[in-house]
Amino acid sequence: METNIIYLPIIMAIIGLIFMVVKAGWVKKQPAGSDKMQSISKSIKEGALAFLNAEYRLLFIFVIIASVALFGISVLVPTTSWMIVPAFIFGAFFSALAGNIGMRIATEANARTSEAAKTSLPQALKVSFSGGTVMGLGVAGLAVLGLSLWFLFFIGQFVGSSADFYSDMTIVLEALAGFSLGAESIALFARVGGGIYTKAADVGADLVGKVEAGIPEDDPRNPATIADNVGDNVGDVAGMGADLFGSYVATVLAAMVLGNYIIRDMSVDTPFVDAFNNMGPILLPLVIAGVGILASIIGTFLVRISSNDAREAQVQRALDTGNWVAIGLTLLSSYFLIQYMLPEMMYMNLFGRSEAVAVPSINVFWAACIGLAVGALISYVTAYYTSLGKKPVMDIVQNSSTGAATNIIAGLAVGMKSTFWSVLLFAVAIYGSYELAGFYGVALAASAMMATTAMQLAIDAFGPIADNAGGVAEMSELEPQVRERTDILDSVGNTTAAVGKGFAIASAALTALALFAAYVTFTGIDGINIFKADVLATLFVGAMIPVVFSALAMKSVGKAAMEMVQEVRRQFREIPGILEGTGTPEYGKCVEISTKAALKEMLLPGLLTIITPIIIGLLLGAEPLGGYMAGVCVSGVMWAIFQNNAGGAWDNAKKSFEAGVEIDGEMTYKGSPAHKAAVTGDTVGDPFKDTSGPSMNILIKLTCLVGLVIAPILGGHHNDSAEVVDHNQQQKVISVTLASEKDGQTTATIKTLEVQSGKEIASESIIGGTSEEIQQTIEKVKGTIE
Amino acid sequence: METNIIYLPIIMAIIGLIFMVVKAGWVKKQPAGSDKMQSISKSIKEGALAFLNAEYRLLFIFVIIASVALFGISVLVPTTSWMIVPAFIFGAFFSALAGNIGMRIATEANARTSEAAKTSLPQALKVSFSGGTVMGLGVAGLAVLGLSLWFLFFIGQFVGSSADFYSDMTIVLEALAGFSLGAESIALFARVGGGIYTKAADVGADLVGKVEAGIPEDDPRNPATIADNVGDNVGDVAGMGADLFGSYVATVLAAMVLGNYIIRDMSVDTPFVDAFNNMGPILLPLVIAGVGILASIIGTFLVRISSNDAREAQVQRALDTGNWVAIGLTLLSSYFLIQYMLPEMMYMNLFGRSEAVAVPSINVFWAACIGLAVGALISYVTAYYTSLGKKPVMDIVQNSSTGAATNIIAGLAVGMKSTFWSVLLFAVAIYGSYELAGFYGVALAASAMMATTAMQLAIDAFGPIADNAGGVAEMSELEPQVRERTDILDSVGNTTAAVGKGFAIASAALTALALFAAYVTFTGIDGINIFKADVLATLFVGAMIPVVFSALAMKSVGKAAMEMVQEVRRQFREIPGILEGTGTPEYGKCVEISTKAALKEMLLPGLLTIITPIIIGLLLGAEPLGGYMAGVCVSGVMWAIFQNNAGGAWDNAKKSFEAGVEIDGEMTYKGSPAHKAAVTGDTVGDPFKDTSGPSMNILIKLTCLVGLVIAPILGGHHNDSAEVVDHNQQQKVISVTLASEKDGQTTATIKTLEVQSGKEIASESIIGGTSEEIQQTIEKVKGTIE
After folding, report:
1. How many CB atoms lie within 10 A of CB A751?
2. Under 8 Å between Cβ of B137 and B103
3. Probe site for chain A from B436, B530, B684 (most A CB atoms < 10 A)
4. Nearest residue of chain B to residue A519 (CA atoms)
5. Which of A545, B8, B35, B315 lies at 20 to 30 Å from A256 by C-alpha?
């Protein structure tokens, strides 16, 4: 059993994918409604597929260029295999596939949800949530399957090629990083492109349709209405699917890389041995991910309501039940898996500690618990700042009475304030999980948050499906009861989306830190010291990137929305009878505008993200790149929380007026000046929460992944250990790192380890001189200590 | 001459203060206009003084509490003298005094400027700029005088008390840090309080007056109009005066502290000796500051126009001439002073380098040039993003045509995008000045930017005076020509204010870095390594503080503005004939509301800034506090640039409509829907650019100053050199730093320096064990090497 445990996640992934196919078949068997409904649904599907296909054509070019670059790296660097290239391509392909599966099922499920809503609310929930489940299992199944198969394949290729297990495994994981890089790159473009698409269509449709022509949302007379519904699918569904696929893979990968360092640290005197082919710490995150799929499947069975009179609270409770059961089962299994797969006592070389620290394996479980607890608390904070009826949203509502300006100020302030508890909790998660089990603990905390991705995504994806179902109902002019039922689902979907974002940010940031730790260890640099001017300078540059990225994304939405506005105005002007419902709008034109704009505009922010770290790494070296990565993470987390929460709060402030709110003792409703101010706030919040905000996650992870992949080629800070370090066991010199030559002077750092009266003493010397002098000194040091 | 050079800055400061008194006398001798004008001016002055007095009462309590805390520190820590307490009190007092002087002259100059504008534009410029000059010289004169006198006094007290000049000087500079801390604390409260006051009054007056009642700006029927004008003085004048006073002192102090490190680094074998009582590098920044005052005075003579038909461009050119002459003169003098006062070749121990680096003194001059060049370029970038007619502002204008939402999105994007070049330039400044002359170079780059503070402030302060003069003209119903002339001055003032902000941010950030460097060196920690989990966690917490601070400041403005709105509405309702001009509004009530709200609301953000670093330092130690400081700096710089530039761009987008702009081929003017959207954007931008944005400067500097002052009490990382290091010259062990005990284990870092074949080899060992074991190891190391 033990030696074959790598097959466990593969089996779980396959079970997940089979269950997905079954669920998808069930959804497709549901009645799809009237011809009109089917035709609308078909238009949406075709528009979405047209966008995805255009996007794939563009990304195909990107993948080819990136593959060539990666191949170049693999030629230059001995520790990087050329197999990083196929892994990268597969990562990109799987990511796109995951988004595609989700998008297809979502466009199948929308009309079927409206049709089911004719019968009952429980049935509508069942159909829409099944759609979400298909997507969740697709993402999780493909991620675990892809990672496991490539890992298995690479192990066969590389492990055992030299006597040093750790070095072989480093090559394996470096190649596997290619899979993650591929996934995350596609995720970035999908998220940004989808985000621009959906908001351009949404804002464009609203500005001319609702505001200028005075027709309701999703009205078939609005030429941009199909584009708007397509946008929900390519942005909220396909974009999110690719995003979470990337996150999931990156989190598991980071934990695996850090697991390998445990093996290294425990192989000082004798090689590390365990029952799991000597790689328990590396396999653990994969196995937990596999178990998470099973737990998620079980959880999905619990998401159901029985009463047709159920309201938001009951639907929410059903989702919560499923979610928490999935989390609970995963955590319980993790407890046993950790005990089973990790050595009872692990030894880790924590940075800045003189000796290897003994860490009981149970600490890893506690780190995972911290991850989950903090994730849940951050979600709670997110929900507080963005929920209907809570103080922050009510505050924005109150401030709407004096106009759009005060509404905007209040919303910005809510978003900014919400960073306080989120960041404090996050700091506690870093500190706590690190204290428990080093960066492996941090990575496992992130893994715990991501383990039930299948369930999380099912919950996240059912919202847009219900939203679309409402659109189909409106456009097909179904009875109001149908819209009411889909609205209940949509409203719950909004809340769960906000909560999901809290988890996503927290896990992305922890993953980025784990990748960051992997990067530092991998490059062999001595930490990231911001007391060096170049590191400090790149820390600032890194912190600027998320800000500029957000600006680019927002501007893109603005530009694309303007084009949409012009087109809708043109159609209203030129097509006779369009507003009376006798002329047919040219929906396709609007779809085309959104498609073109999104593809054009996603390139600059995407390339900025990928190319900047490469330039900094090549120009300045490994430690400044580390500073850059830290800057991107720190600033990215702030801007993600700020933008997501401000956007969510504005949205719900606007929604508050639908049921009516009391302002200065008077009930105020839709259509009032205060409501108009709130609509303005919501429009500002749209690109915040659906375009730039969610991209921050990917931005920070992708930055760290790019760093990790290019780490071996960074000049000036390479480990020159082969040359001067003798690997026999008496040897006390751990490593010699040569720093860059400057003014004819070479500097080297010598790390030594000495055992004195049972205590290990680590020491580090920086020496300078010509290379000959350094060579002499090294010999002398070795002589002295031996 | 050389030994008495400390008297040079004192003389310059006194010359500056005498010139200030003469100028102030001249302003007061100018005709003050009609009784009505004098009465309005008097009301403004009384309101402003009432606010300042109330503020001082509150700050008096703060100063007492802080003094007790500082006294406590001085008792606990041997390197901190109790004299830090009087220095702190004087710093606070001088800062308040500087703001007060500026505010008094500004309220004298406003009506006199309107009166002068009756005659001619050149005369109006002369009066308003003279007012500004008084303020500029007051701030610079008091800063240089205060610093020099305390420095002189402390030298008499402490230098020579032990054989070690460097240690004595450390005590001097630590005590002098108290002066800077006092100045910066008051600056924070003055800036935040003033910022809240002015925007609450402004927004409140506009929302009810302009929007609801439809009466123009500065109309005497508006009860909030006096409060609005008072706000200009307490915020833009007194607040800014205290702010720049604090910046100036902090910059010079940081450079002095880093100068002391040069002396230490050059005293390894024999004590450092020069003609300036052996403290040339410490005195240099003070002397440059003194020379800057003289250069500024000369520059002010060049600010004049002759033609009464001059427009903005001519006024701008006059200001530019004066400014650049002052800068040129200071730079020229610096060139000679640097050659004169610094040893031709300096040796600095740069972090991460094995040997002391030889730095020719001329490098310091080049670092100063980099500082000025980058400061000028950042100002240029700022001007580009915020100026009338340039692409970013025009973009906001175009986006106003589709409503407030698109205007806001465009404005936010402009602010965010503007971080790109500013931060890149800033990174170049850090890297370049550091490469040239280490952190001393960074500090001198900042000093060069701040050297002409007197002139900068004169230019900055004349704007609000002209703005107020326009208000007085409007309220006294003077002929339109007067308002036109003051409007020209006001408009130029807006541009110079934006440019000045670019300089202020850049210099504040560089100063913060210099303080940060001083902190790291002072605590004796081995850099700030963000690869340690606790440092990483505090980096995130630090980055969150500017965001939350900004939110608090913005919310405060919102709350106070709401109270103002209620009061103005009440007066319109209850006072008969008020809108017809027959009833008299109760101006005092509005002044009182702004005063109370500002004082109440400034406390939380102020205390957050001061207390958080203390908590982090005491709980987690020196290195995590360093991470926190870095986080505050990095994030603070982004949010400062973002908020200032977005606010400035919105303001000018709104102003664009006054002359008319072409949107979609149609000329659009004031009163159009697009203009209304632009007004909304401007209202959002108001707290950005006048409350939270400018506070970021102070926030980052104050955080670093608090860190520097509490550095000696941070447990766990103190230099235990007295115990184990033998200071004779054969001694090769440089220092032993004991880190905190943990689980009965003590860790110590031993730094050694060894000369081998003519090369110095610095090495550093981290050892762990019980204290006895460590003692043994230390003895052994000493034995081995000697």
Report:
1. 17
2. no
3. B530
4. B531
5. A545
pLDDT recorded at residue A281: 92
Q: Which residue type does B374 have?
A: V
Chain A closest CA to B142's CA: distance in Å? 33
* Percent of chain B scoring above 70 in pLDDT: 90
Cβ contacts below 8 Å, chain A against chain B, sum to 301
Of the residues A258, A394, A544, the best mutation for testing chain B's interface (the one with the most B CB atoms within 10 Å of its CB) is A544
- B569's CB contacts (< 8 A; 6+ apart) are B208, B212
Q: What is the C-alpha to C-alpha distance for residues A400 and A673, in angstroms, rounded to an integer?
A: 8
pLDDT at site B748: 58
Chain B hits for A532, Cβ within 8 Å: 351-352, 527
pLDDT score at A655: 87
If DSSP states are collapsed to H, E and C, what string results for B1-70? CHHHCCHHHHHHHHHHHHHHHHHHHHHHHCCCCCHHHHHHHHHHHHHHHHHHHHHHHHHHHHHHHHHHHH
Which residues in chain A have Cβ-Cβ distances shorter than 8 Å to B565? 402
Distance from CA of A288 to the nearest CA of B (A): 25
Whole-angstrom distance, CA of residue B247 vs CA of residue B444 = 14
State the average pLDDT over residues A302-326. Answer: 89
Contact B396, B650 (CB under 8 A): yes
Q: Cα dist. A208→A100, A463, A571, B402 in Å?
A: 31, 26, 11, 9
Backbone dihedral region for residue A270 (phi beyond 0: left; psi -120 to 50: alpha; all else: beta)? beta
User: How far apart are the two ends of chain B, measured CA to CA in Å?
Assistant: 44
Nearest chain B residue to A768 by CA distance is B354
Provide the shortest C-alpha distance from residue A450 to chain B (in Å).
21
- d(CA A567, CA A570) in angstroms, rounded, equals 5
Instruction: Name the DSSP letter for residue A741.
Output: P
DSSP A674-705: HHHHHHHHHHHHHHIIIIIHHHHHHHHHHHHH
pLDDT at A531: 84
A117/B646 Cα distance (integer angstroms):
47
**ipTM exceeds 0.90:** no
Could you tell me the pLDDT band of residue A26, with boundaries at 50, 70 and 90? very high
Q: How many Cα atoms sit within 13 Å of A758 on the Cβ side?
A: 3
Nearest chain B CA: its distance from A654 CA (Å): 14
Which letter, b or e, does each residue of A372-395 get, where b requires 16 or more Cβ atoms within 10 Å of its Cβ?
bbbbbbbbebbbbbbbbeeebbbb
Tell me the per-residue pLDDT of B668-682, one tens digit each, with 9 for 90 and over. Answer: 888 888 998 999 999
Q: What DSSP element (H or E) covers A736?
A: strand A733-738
Task: Out of A381-390, A712-721, B440-449, pick the least confident.
Answer: A712-721
Q: Which two structure tokens, joined as six digits, stand for A695?
A: 């991209």
- Which residue from A520, A631, A638 is facing B547, i.e. has the nearest CB? A638
Query: Which tens digit of pLDDT belongs to each residue from B181-210?
Result: 999 999 988 888 988 998 888 888 887 887
Residue B531 token pair:
């690869």
pLDDT in tens, A631-687: 999 999 999 999 999 999 999 899 889 888 888 788 888 888 899 899 999 989 999
Closest CA to A177 of A107, A109, A77: A77
DSSP assignment letter at B681: H
Question: Do residues A463 and A136 make contact, with C-beta atoms less than 8 angstroms apart?
Answer: no
Cβ contact, residue pair A765, B763, below 8 Å: yes
| Residue B265 near residue B345 (C-beta atoms within 8 A) | no
Q: Which residues contact A441 (CB under 8 A, 6 or more apart)?
A: A363, A364, A367, A433, A434, A435
pLDDT in tens, A569-604: 889 888 888 888 788 888 888 888 888 888 888 889
User: Which of A615, A637, A764, A767 is the best mutation test for B, with the most CBs of B within 10 A?
Assistant: A767
